[in-house]
């Protein structure tokens, strides 16, 4: 089971968490990923580096609209990359 | 039991018009409530200006507590009268209710009020007299705990005229609709007003043939809301604030992500963060057992402030599902509001390149408090 947590605190919100959520949901659907839980979180204490997310307990900072798909691929589509 | 007089209204402009020719003013002062309804002759902006002028003059004089006779003469002498037709441009109905629940209603050229009592709608007992050449109806009575009173403009009694009905609903027809609606749901005035507006609109075929307004009034129990926003300056106050909010009487809101995390930690409760955006500018709300609403902090507070600035007493608050609209509704539905405000500052909000100025929490909350006091809410703020 994969778990994605995206910060929706004020600071990350302003840096685009809504868009990131949308992109991740889109990718999950497109890649027909099953067993993924996507949820929000409040401040992860790293606002200056937002948007902050966690994928399977690994913290990832500075996620943007531009690099979100790449990050998704790297962390959640590993099998397919092999 | 502490009671408060509550009133809600909706004004619908004639189909195709941008503004309504009816105007409502509600003033609360010295434990009295003054409600004024005016309907300007015609429709559109001219009618709107006339009714606004009339109701503003009326409410202003009533607020100054001049003797009724004098108020009446002044209003009537000031009302713009059409020189050709010799009639007043705007109708006028107003009522004053004091803390002993004694209600005095005056009607000039407007439809008689509807009193819902003992499960049915009845007409009031009026005394009629002439003043300044105008026929005036006056009713005095004691407003009972379960009474509900409705004032309408003639756009309501005329609903359906020339279309669905030959002569419109008429007073009896409107009474029947009010009776049927209120019987079904006596507690929720806001809901009933919305429902009745739908009914009258239907009689008009969803294209109102005239401006129409309905105001509903009743007593209800006072409501309280408590808000905790912001971490305290001293971390050792975390547990004190968590305790204060969880033991408070009334509804409970937590505003701010970090604040919610502190509350969850101190109260040992599970915090579920939402992901659903109802409005792309307002971050999602969360859930925690025992709390009515958990929102993001500063963006939400800023939106709440701008919604409150636009609010006019008696209006039915906007129906949005986002955190700020729900927050605003909880504030408007309450009579006393208590803020517990932590003044610790989120460093990251201060430092970097954020696209908008988030402002300082304490300033925004002070401004929200000011807006709430403007509409006669009791506000308390405790700083930590």
From TrEMBL, chain A:
- Write down the CDD domains for this protein, in alphabetical order: TRX_Fd_family (cd02980)
Instruction: Identify this protein by name.
Output: NADH dehydrogenase subunit E
InterPro entries, A to Z = Thioredoxin-like_sf
Q: Which organism is it from?
A: Halanaerobium saccharolyticum
Question: Could you tell me the superkingdom of the organism this chain comes from?
Answer: Bacteria
**Pfam families per record:** 2Fe-2S_thioredx
UniProtKB/TrEMBL annotation, chain B:
Task: Provide the PPM-type phosphatase domain boundaries.
Answer: 4-219
UniProt-listed InterPro entries: Bact_Sigma-Reg, PPM-type-like_dom_sf, PPM-type_phosphatase-like_dom
Q: Does the keyword Hydrolase apply?
A: yes
Q: Which UniProt keywords apply?
A: Hydrolase
Question: Which Gene Ontology molecular function entries are recorded, alphabetically?
Answer: phosphatase activity
Q: Which SUPFAM superfamilies match?
A: PP2C-like
Alphabetical list of SMART domains matching this protein: PP2C_SIG (SM00331)
The protein depicted here goes by the name Stage II sporulation protein E
């Amino acid at each position: 089971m994969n778990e994605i947590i995206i910060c929706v605190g004020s600071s990350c919100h302003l840096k685009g968490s809504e868009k990131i959520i949308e992109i991740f949901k889109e990718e999950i659907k497109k890649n027909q990923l099953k067993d993924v839980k996507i949820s929000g979180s409040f401040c992860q204490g790293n606002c200056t580096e937002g948007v902050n997310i966690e994928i399977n307990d690994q913290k990832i900072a500075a996620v943007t609209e531009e690099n979100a798909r790449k990050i998704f691929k790297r962390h959640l589509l590993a099998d397919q990359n092999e | 039991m502490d009671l408060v007089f509550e009133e809600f209204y909706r004004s619908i402009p004639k189909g195709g018009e941008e503004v309504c020719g009816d105007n409502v003013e509600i003033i609360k002062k010295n434990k009295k409530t003054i409600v004024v309804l005016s309907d300007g002759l015609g429709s559109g902006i001219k009618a709107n200006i006339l009714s606004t002028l009339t109701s503003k003059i009326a409410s202003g004089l009533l607020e100054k507590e001049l003797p009724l006779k004098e108020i009446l003469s002044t209003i009537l002498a000031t009302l713009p009268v059409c020189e050709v037709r010799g009639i007043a441009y705007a109708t006028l109905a107003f009522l004053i209710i004091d803390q002993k629940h004694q209600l005095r209603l005056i009607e000039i050229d407007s439809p008689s009020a509807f009193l819902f009592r003992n499960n049915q709608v009845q007409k009031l007992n009026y005394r009629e007299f002439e003043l300044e050449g105008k026929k005036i109806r006056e009713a005095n009575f004691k407003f009972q705990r379960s009474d509900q009173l409705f004032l309408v403009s003639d756009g309501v009694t005329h609903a359906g005229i020339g279309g669905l009905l030959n002569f419109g609903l008429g007073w009896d027809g409107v009474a029947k609709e009010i009776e049927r609606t209120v019987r079904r749901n006596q507690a929720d005035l806001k809901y009933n007003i919305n429902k009745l507006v739908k009914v009258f609109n239907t009689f008009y075929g969803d294209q109102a043939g005239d401006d129409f307004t309905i105001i509903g009034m009743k007593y209800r129990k006072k409501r309280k809301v408590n808000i905790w926003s912001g971490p305290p300056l001293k971390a050792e106050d975390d547990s004190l604030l968590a305790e204060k909010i969880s033991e408070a009487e009334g509804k409970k809101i937590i505003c701010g992500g970090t604040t919610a995390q502190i509350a969850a930690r101190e109260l040992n409760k599970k915090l579920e963060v939402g992901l659903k955006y109802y409005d792309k500018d307002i971050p999602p709300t969360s859930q925690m057992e025992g709390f009515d609403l958990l929102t993001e902090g500063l963006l939400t507070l800023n939106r709440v402030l701008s919604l409150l600035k636009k609010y006019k007493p008696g209006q039915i608050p906007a129906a949005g599902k986002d955190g700020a609209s729900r927050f605003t509704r909880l504030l408007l539905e309450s009579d006393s509001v208590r803020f517990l405000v932590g003044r610790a500052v989120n460093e990251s909000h201060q430092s970097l390149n954020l696209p908008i100025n988030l402002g300082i929490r304490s300033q925004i909350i002070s401004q929200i408090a000011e807006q709430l006091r403007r509409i006669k809410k009791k506000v308390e703020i405790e700083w930590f």
